[in-house]
Design goal:
single chain, 396 residues, mainly beta, Beta-galactosidase, Chain A, domain 5, 10-stranded antiparallel beta sheet, 5-stranded antiparallel beta sheet, 3 helices, 28 strands, 6% helix, globular, disordered N terminus
Length: 396
Amino acid sequence: MKIKKTKPFIVILAVIMAASIIGCKQTKKDDPIEMETVKTEPSNFKIEESVFGTLPDGSEVKKFALSNEAGTQVDVITLGGIITRWTAPDKKGVYGDVVIGFDNLEQYLEPNPFFGALIGRYGNRIAKGKFSLDGKEYTLATNNGENHLHGGDKGFDKVLWDAKAQQTDKGAELVLTYTSADGEEGYPGKLDVTVTYTLMADNALDIQYEAVTDKPTVVNLTQHTYFNLSGQFTKPVLDHELVLDADAFLPVDSGLIPTGELQPVAGTPFDFTTSKLIGKEIEADNEQIKLGGGYDHCWVLNKPDQGYRLIGSAYHGETGRFMEVFTDEPGVQFYSGNFLDNTLPAKGGGTYGKRAGFCLETQHFPDSPNQEGFPSVRLNPGEKYASKTTYKFSAK
């Protein structure tokens, strides 16, 4: 693997690899998962269950509205674990919806760019839809040009999850479970997946991912919510300020597959180590910007050896809404909504135009199964995939 500016970035890669020897943050099957939470009385939270709609096969899609005493509400449906609504406070204390989505189930059943959904088995791209494990080649759907994207034709975003809601001392909790059969979408092994959404008293939403397998496989789970902190979904997010604690990113080829390099962000439009407007350099005369049509790249996060940590933030000056992101993952895909094109209806009216939302998808690196120099995404029987990401809202 080629690494530019060798000395400091060999150090970065070495730290990432050391922190990721556990692969997909695998632990022994019975190891507890550490949860950093604010303990509160269960009575401070509400969980409301309703029917969101019915699938063509007659299956019922449920909606769970998690809310706290402060005023935050997160609505999740059992189709794809999709977050359909998420309210956050502005500087006047007014709570408003800050995520892109649709008003009804029928719209979610039409093709859309993974609005609000859980992504698996593999978040992001796998080159040419192929990878090998233990000398055996596996073939996946090529649903993004010649490449595989976000789990295939029917990834975790399109399946019906089982759900259990409960109030705990941590907050309002929704536990989603799904079993992916051996061979589903071409992946080996039966994979039992659990994703837990927990809304806390401090307006933080914890997302805990867990999985176990009965055969060696690859796993890279993430969440694909599109944020627009202005709450005005027909307007672009170019006026949002972004910070990412990352000194390098992964340059890509014309198919948006990583080249294998770790490129320093310094002196490039990809430098968000200090607060910068998303729109400041999004149209820069830069090869990587042109390939992505803007930002659609994975940033190599600093301090992977520290595990769960603050890795970035977004701020909208007009409303004062501020979002912090914490994760134990080695990377984050920042996508600036470049392919939204006014063809999809917006909540409340209008359409979603170019860059009407941005995603911060915490994850392992794209195409890792084919890139020996990247942290491993392999999961073996007897191990547990465990990963945690938190989005926390406040105002300033």
